Amino acid sequence: MHLQRKAGAEGVDTLRPEFVLTRANALLVPSSRTSLRLSGDTLIASGVASAAWRREAQRLALAVPGVAALHLAALADSAEVALRAAADSLEQVTFDFPLGSAVPVAGQERRVDSLATRIRAFLADAARGERTATIELVGSADSVGSEATNAILRQARASRTRSALIARGANPAWLIATPDTSDTDRTLRQVHLKITLSRQ
Q1: Model-level pTM?
Q2: What are the structural domain ranges in the chain?
Q3: Is the pLDDT of residue 5 over 80?
Q4: Cβ(179)–Cβ(154) under 8 Å?
């Protein structure tokens, strides 16, 4: 009887949360960007992980004694995180324009070349990740002159930048030239990017 009670106690001990979590980490091998925790008998993954790791976790998690469910809603996809980071980097690129002109300030040609190359690579990465990227080229104008004139300038600056990128191989299907209609800053004479990612 003593041995049976001991075995029963050991069985209960193996279901203690810290032991369950240790076994889950050993079996699922999350990266340093992924953390696991237990809530009752539910294993919760959070942080960032690849789609491959998610699939393996879904396949293996319930084989861990003490785990009855797996929760992945708090887990971001690493490919999507990388795409968003790349998009944020692209959104830092701007092109400046002289007062009252839709022709860019001289000396920005290399920046256009570089941006076109980066956009091509970004769109290819998005397609591989089954994402669609829409890239808005947003034209701004300062408050000098009439609103009617500035509205034309905003659109013309965006359209000219779009044409320059298309001429360097950027896919026109995902480039949209649009005027800045916000009232946040009327001192800028430039074009900047705004990128939206969505699942295909």
Answers
A1: 0.77
A2: 2-73, 79-199
A3: no
A4: yes
